[in-house]
Amino acid sequence: MDSKQVAELSSYYLFQNYAREALCFSHGKGEYLWDLEGNRYIDYVAGIAVNCLGHAHPELVKAICEQASRLIHVSNLYQVKEQADLGEALAAIVPAPLGRSFFCNSGAEANEAALKLAVKHTGRPKVVAARNSFHGRTAATLSVTGQGKYQKGFEPLLSRNVDFIGYNSVEELKAAVDHGTAALILEPVQGEGGVIPASQEFFRAARDLCTDTGALMLVDEVQTGMGRTGEWFGFQHYGVVPDVISLAKGLGGGVPIGAIITSPDIAKAFTPGVHGTTFGGNPLACAAASVVIRVLRQERLVERAAELGAEWKRELVRTVQGHEGVTEVRGMGLMLGVELGDLAKGFQAYALARRLLVNVAGGRTVRLVPPLIISKGSIQELDAALSSYLHGN
Question: Taking every pair of C-alpha atoms in the chain, what is the biggest distance, in angstroms?
Fold first, then answer.
């Protein structure tokens, strides 16, 4: 079966809710993917910031296979050793007082749990979120996603207790967060919104306001966490510690898992029966996530993301210099965005024709979130393609 036949089969049997490329992959290795026709591609998408160790990392493959041969799922009716091990591993990389984890299956579920926790802990009705944000597609997380295109058609399900503010607007922040606020939810870098980092002033003001009012500061690290920005977590660039962080994507290196991490005191709000999940924290997903943390440490991939990302960002600035259609190169570590405006979609197609996989976030920004193991040679190939596209070299 080739890629075209897969697309035809999908059109008969699957919901048509994705604008998919006519492309189907058979396998991957490192930063490379091969399609069913045997063509090799360089992957700068990493499953949308998920495959942080690349494809088929031997340590991750080994851990998944060994765990699957022993135990995949038992439910949370029982103690789960792999879950406890992962909780310990996460506690070792987050700052105090964070250190108590709850596991689920996705980023949306993690943010949903964080919102429920905040309301339960504070007993307050209101949530504050940022415009241009993205926090998930469940009813609650869609309610705090500040982009109308995702909410359209689902308004009856959305909460009316959400106030939206301008991202990086300290003035609007101060006007919105008060003693009736249960939670302020923010991304350190707005990923789906176009790779837009928070300013130092904004993020620190957010922490101060939450402390003063008793609102919980929820930081959505689904896309920015696990070394993506050159720190273990995006909030570490701002010198603050949130009350709750949410994780997913890179946490499992490709195996679906989500998590929230908070302090022991706040975690007390979730008592037996208050919140739960059937699959969350299953042995297979937790074993994978523990190995991801171990490999990130052993191979110093967090530090590498910081160093390589800073170098790449400087090179991208040089590459786009002088082209009037490019407004900005943004981001941290190996989470970079090149705002090309109306040229963004064109470059995505141009790159794909050269077997380079990129995607567009916010409609105008080429988002680059490759595996953290990506080689300098692959980075240079992307730079050369961008230069050729913009300057016709």
Answer: 63
Torsion of CA 44, 142, 364, 45, to 10 degrees: 0
List the CATH number of the domain containing 46. 3.90.1150.10
The pLDDT tens digits for 302-334 are: 999 999 999 999 999 999 988 887 879 999 999
In this structure, the strands spanning 126-130 and 162-165 are: parallel
Please give the radius of gyration of the chain, using alpha carbons only, rounded to the nearest integer: 21
Query: Distance between CA atoms of 325 and 240, rounded to whole angstroms?
Result: 36
- pLDDT per position as a tens digit, 327-377: 799 999 999 999 999 999 999 999 999 999 999 999 999 999 999 999 999
Among residues 91, 81, 129, 89, which one has the least CA distance to residue 267?
91
Name the CA dihedral angle for 134, 138, 139, 144, rounded to a multiple of 10 degrees: -20
- Burial classification of residue 114, based on how many CB atoms lie within 10 Å of its CB (0-12 exposed, 13-18 middle, 19 or more buried): buried
Range(s) of the domain holding residue 284: 59-298
